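User: What would this chain look like folded?
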Amino acid sequence: MSFVKPEKTLHDMNIAEGMTVVDFDAGAGYFTMALAKKVGPHGKVYAIDTRADLLTRIANEAKIFHHKNVEVLRGDIESPNGSGLINASVDRVIIANTLFVCDHPERAVKEAVRILKLKGKIAVIDWVDSYNHFGPHPDCIIPKEHIASWFDRENMIQEREFDAGDYHYGLVFKFKD
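Assistant: Here's the prediction, encoded as structure tokens.
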């Protein structure tokens, strides 16, 4: 049994030093800290969440580990311009274990696409199943095909799928050529 491993996901996304990357609905910063290491001191990581207490936790952890490249932003990824970032300003967006809890997940997709540079990529990691209530309620599981259709409406295609552990799928999207 394996869970999502941030370092492997970042490798699968071709995240490099100096990039600007966003962790949508960052939560406890599971991906944020791995991103901070990967993009290095000349890169930038935005951790976006609606919960101020979690953002404070991420900011404190970033200080402890001397990640000066982490910026926390309180925002609603389901609202237009809700991330607070400008159009076409980031190289990568990570949306991990997030869409299944959104009231309007297609709006979060739209916001991720809005802030992405033309050559950028978006990774979506979400639950495959509920695993007898180990994961989310079965009604909350979002099939990969639904997610792909939301990205298709935003002029994006699925570039590939990657191994995101036993309980999740991982998808990478890019703009259509």
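Residues 6-175 form a domain with the Rossmann fold fold (CATH 3.40.50.150). If you want, I can go into more detail on any region.
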